[in-house]
Amino acid sequence: MADTSEVPEVDVHEAKCRIGQGAFFLDVREANEFAEARIPGTTLIPMSEFSDRYEEELPTDRQIVIHCRSGQRSATATAFLIQHGYDAVNVAGGLMAWVEEGLPVEGDEG
Question: What is the pLDDT along the chain (110 residues), one digit of tens a residue?
């Protein structure tokens, strides 16, 4: 999809802060992963559907904070969106880092 070598990243605490300030929170994991555990307030657009859905579903007027399980898929999505003119940042460490820091999660495993 895109080069991820220079993708802007924020840690989970900065991500939570930006979301609290109105950033759009995007999860790019697959639906089964989302059902198991998800961060409250996240919108799901799976990577397998991302290129078909992003233009219709993502805002262009605010920052998009993106996460996946570990930060790899979301880095790809972040780079892709930046190349297409969006203001996007990747959550370093993804959901795993979020859980490690004791931040809220819901779902089957949350």
Answer: 566 678 999 999 999 999 999 999 999 999 999 999 999 999 999 999 999 999 999 999 999 999 999 999 999 999 999 999 999 999 999 999 999 999 999 987 54
Annotated catalytic residue, options 23, 28, 66, 68: 68
Evaluate whether 95 touches 105 at the Cβ level (below 8 Å).
Answer: yes
Nearest to 65 by CA among 109, 99, 17: 17
Active site residue 17: no
Note whether 90 and 3 are within 8 A (CB): no
Tokens of 23: 């950033």
